[in-house]
Amino acid sequence: MKLCVALLVVLSTFPDTLLAATEYATFESFYKESSTVGWILAGVVALIAGAVIVFTAAAASPIVIGIGSWIGGMMGLSGIAATNTGLALLGGGSIASGGFGIIGGTALLTAALSFGTDIVFDYTIGKAVSAYKYSNLTEHSKKMPTLPLPINDSGPGAYESAMEVLKGINEELPIYSTYNQKAIRRAITVLESSQDAPDIDEQAKNSSLLSLLNFVSNDYVKAKKFARLAINSARESEIKRTLPAFIYAASSLYEEDFDFTSITKNYFRYSILAEPDNPLIPVLFSIYLDRMFLRFNDGYLDEKSLNSIFNIMQSPSIVDDRVLNYTVLLSRYFIRLKLEQQKIASLSNSSNETRASLKTPNNHP
């Protein structure tokens, strides 16, 4: 009896250790270190790492600054870090990661609050494509906000070897830089060439890392392949599989033909609701929505598909993030609206120029 009590005390004292031994395919297993460092830091890195625009009080009205600070505060930040993170999130991520950045979030809020019709975004950033082409989608995705690299380096031998390679990442450069992409490719090679024969749950972690690294390298075919392997391994071990489920859903959006309702309900929804305490949830909504909007351009998806995302956001288990998630969705809607305004203005200007060029010149004798 005393031994049982002692064992319970030990297990309750080290909950993270217990979790790490059983859950190999969750966001927490990748983004929370064994130390006391909170894993919300991964979300901060995903949003503002490498930002090249410094926000100042002169850039926007007090109400815009206040909203940015409020959103950042909901992520556990304070001061200028809260303001910068909130505005960067609204702007679609940091400039370095390919979003509109802090200045984009400022412009977005200013336009929305003033009910102005001024076009605040460059249409070429979100230029539409007229037909499906995988290479076009991946090219547009290279500078989009993406998943952060793991911060937990504990796992099977091959996993730890790959994480050792990733220590060569230059954190001052964006993830899509040539230098960092080479390091990621080396880590992928280490994992793929490993001769380890890990347990089935360890296979889930190795495959999850492979899916993650291919995802941030914009190889969505391989990302989905390894996500499927990780999901199968995790199911066999009866452990959660939130990380590969998200990657599977997001990668499916790059296929020419897919069942949006099915992947959103069975994979994206699961990735959110099966790990409701994940502080990266607002970032996951951002990443998924940005890639959904790519498929708006070729007509495969339309605004009706946003209802599925909104319904997930209403789930009681993530009520604490509801306002922030709603704000993420609303910001993407406004970005889409502004880009369409730019498109209309561009077409209008082109038409005017064409009409002007067709006018008969005045030939005076």
What report would you give on this structure?
With 365 residues, the protein is mainly alpha-helical. It folds into two domains: 41-128, no CATH class; 141-344. Helices cover 62% and strands 0% of the residues. It is built from 17 helices and no strands. Helix 5 (62-74) crosses helix 6 (79-90), helix 11 runs antiparallel to helix 12 and helix 11 packs parallel to helix 13. The protein is globular and about 60 Å long. The N and C termini lie far apart (115 Å). 43% of the residues are buried.
Low-pLDDT runs: 1-21, 46-59, 119-126
Portion in helices:
55-70%
Order of helices and strands: HHHHHHHHHHHHHHHHH
Query: Structural class per helix/strand content?
Result: mainly alpha
SSE diagram, text form:
Layout: H1 2-13, H2 15-22, H3 27-31, H4 41-48, H5 62-74, H6 79-90, H7 101-114, H8 134-141, H9 157-166, H10 178-192, H11 200-216, H12 220-237, H13 242-252, H14 260-273, H15 281-297, H16 306-313, H17 322-358
Helix pairs in contact: 5-6, 6-7, 9-10, 10-11, 11-12, 11-13, 12-13, 13-14, 15-17
